[in-house]
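Weekly structure sync, notes
Attendees: PL (lead), two postdocs, one rotation student
Agenda item 3: pending single-chain targets
PL asked that the sequence for the first pending target be pasted directly into the notes so everyone works from the same version. It is reproduced below exactly as submitted, 262 residues in total.
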Amino acid sequence: MKFLRRILVLILLLLAGPLAATSLTGCARLSGDWTTASREPAGIAPDPAGTPEAVVQVYGARAFRWRGAFAVHTWIAFKPANAPAFTSYEVTGWGVRRGGGSAINIEEGAPDRHWYGARPELIADVRGSRAAAAIEKIKAAVASYPYPDSYRTWPGPNSNTFVAHLLRQAPEIAADLPPTAIGKDFLPNGDVLAPTPSGGGGQMSLLGLAGVLASPEEGIEVNVLGLSFGIDPDELALRLPGIGKVGFALKNGADNGTPPAK
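Predicted structure, written out during the meeting:
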């Protein structure tokens, strides 16, 4: 009985974050209509016409309806040097559920559109020669993604599994996917060991259901049933399930005035 009580306490603690996130993100999104939800650009991405250099950006936004209490949806976009537009890559389950469709969506246009009412956050912004090198690796990683026709909300493979796969192949981006990116720890092909999505450390994961990772970018994070928590000494932050990163020195691309990486 004591063991069962401890398990129950652990589950309640893990669910406390998602319950708090529900009140923070707004209950209206839990029952919203996706056909009328905003998909307008958020004004974060640079204008390609005025940005000749190569750019790679990673975005995340709260998932739609009840999933938003637990997780974010992430995607990656890039613009080669002198390209007239961004191309965004993401994974969704719509085509798969309808039968015969690919989970990978490729779209040209504004990369910072709201995710069905949820404003995106800039996770990484890399420019110049590093971005140019990363773009070629991203293209190859898209082609090598092992689940182009599969989608599973939990524990993966899902949108965050896809983005984490691309990031591992392009360590120049050094993106720190938030703990709410459920599915990032679902390692392709049943692997148990892999680099972290930032490329700067290592992780162990059992089918995305349990594991641990450590790196200078992500800090130390423990995954229990897909819900992740930990600490990030570099940003003086806690990594909490449902809530994300909470701290005093959070880095968030160009949003905090830090120049984008070259």
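Discussion points:
- The two ends are 56 Å apart (CA to CA).
- Confidence is low (pLDDT under 50) at residues 254-262.
Action: rotation student to compare against the earlier draft before next sync.
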